[in-house]
Amino acid sequence: MKLKSIVGSIVLGFLISLATGLLSNDSGISIPELKRYGHPFVWLVTNLNGSTEYILINLAADVVIWTVASLFTLFLLFKAVPARARNSSSTTPYLVQETVPRQRSSYIFLLYYLFFAFVMKAVSEFVHEILGHGFFAMLFGGTIVSLTISLLWPYRLSCIGIHGIFEAWQRPWIAGAGILVCLIVSCSIQALLTWKVKAWRLTVPLFWLAFWTFVNPAGYLIIGGIKPFGDISQLIADGVLSQPLSVAIGVIVFASNFFSLSTIFMNIIQTTGFVMNKKTAPVFLGLLWLTIPFITLMAIIGLGFLSSYSPLLTAISFLPSIVVFFLPVDSLSAVKRHFS
User: Fold this and answer.
1) CA distance 204 to 109
2) Whole-angstrom Cα distance, residue 288 to residue 296?
């Protein structure tokens, strides 16, 4: 990637960060006189009764995040366009016939892929809160009184308000239902994608739903085992889980789904023609698993009580992206089928 691409990404990251200063980022509990702006971190705070505060360290963090996101997008676009299309004259008839359609289809696939990466993240939160906690609460005679779906999970957690009188044995089921249902959904979709679904337009959104409904419970179990919070705190308080057991289950869940999701992802990017060279495919797989350190960073910053564990959590979060380069490519792309 050329220097101008890096500089362009930095400029774009800065501009996007400034643009988020127009978007409110107030939490559920806030002082009415104070208005907070900036995403994912608040860097602008206005006071109706006083001056405006600029939090430069948060602005810098936003610029870094949006710059990395821009670089990531440019890198994928750069890899998606064949080298001969980048280096040759656009007036060549051969290029007009061959590389331009290829380039256009790659852009369409990439936009479709990124769009559903965001959408299915929100859907996975709905699965966790409504189909998990909400369903089991209603199953035991309770009612749902409120629901908040966070688009910035895990920087800000989603939550559901439940009303009811529950017996002691029912409370652990309600507390653990979000994790349980997400795992069932993820494993079911992975099995479906491995054996049945072939159309990439359906495979991409299903893959992302399987990915996020896997990351959600795995993250809760591992991070919650290191420092209990949310559902894990409740399960530990109810006596059905301990910190070591939570970490152990989380690691097993992660390891057992890691290879399956990696295989599905490799099949998507190779059989759709997005990646033509098998040797470069692990790079894209590594980029996929870099999602883990990114959301881990969001959790550390958003959930302040995790800050003292940040070195450990950060080190753990990079392991999947490193491991993929030691996996045999042929074993990840051995499924002989085509997405149409």
Assistant:
1) 9
2) 14
Render each residue's pLDDT in the chain as its tens digit; 340 residues.
566 677 777 888 888 888 877 766 665 445 667 777 887 788 888 877 777 788 888 888 888 888 887 787 766 556 544 444 444 444 444 333 334 445 557 777 888 888 889 889 989 999 999 999 999 999 999 999 988 888 788 888 888 999 999 999 999 999 999 999 999 999 999 999 988 766 778 899 999 999 999 999 999 999 999 989 889 999 999 999 999 999 999 999 999 999 999 999 988 887 777 776 667 778 888 889 989 988 888 887 777 777 678 788 888 889 998 888 887 766 555 444 444 4
Assess contact for 236 and 243: CB atoms under 8 A. Answer: yes
Residues 6 or more apart whose Cβ sits within 8 Å of residue 142: 162, 163, 164, 165, 166, 174
CA distances, 299 to each of 61, 162, 223, 261, 292 (Å): 14, 24, 9, 22, 11
Dist CA 17 CA 166 (whole Å): 46
Output the pTM of the full model.
Answer: 0.70
